[in-house]
Design a protein that fits this description.
It is a single chain. The longest helix has 20 residues. The chain is elongated. It is built from three helices and no strands. The model has no long low-confidence stretch (mean pLDDT 74). Helix 1 packs across helix 2. The chain has 89 residues and is mostly helical.
Length: 89
């Protein structure tokens, strides 16, 4: 019985972020959900932990780590664009 509760919790936890990142062009595949769960685990989230107090907090922290990594990945191209530029002179 305890295993089925943990399995239901893992499934629910895996689907919540998946739904948050879902786009309107169709349902998520199992591979997409698994990939998101692996990404959360790499960010420090453990869905099979005891959850002795702060389960939603640890999920939010892992999501924040992923968001920071994505921001860093998108901002790493080219120099900082400040001021104006001229071309052709």
């Amino acid at each position: 019985m305890n295993f089925s509760i943990k399995a239901a919790f893992v499934t629910a936890v895996a689907l919540i972020p998946a739904l948050a990142f879902a786009q309107s062009n169709g349902p998520l595949t199992r591979e997409q959900v698994r990939a998101e769960l692996v990404q959360l685990e790499k960010a420090g989230y453990n869905p099979l932990s005891d959850c002795s107090g702060d389960c939603p907090g640890s999920l939010r922290r892992a999501e924040a780590v992923i968001a920071q990594q994505q921001n860093n990945a998108y901002s790493g191209y080219g120099p900082a664009m400040t001021g104006t530029g001229q071309s052709g002179k």
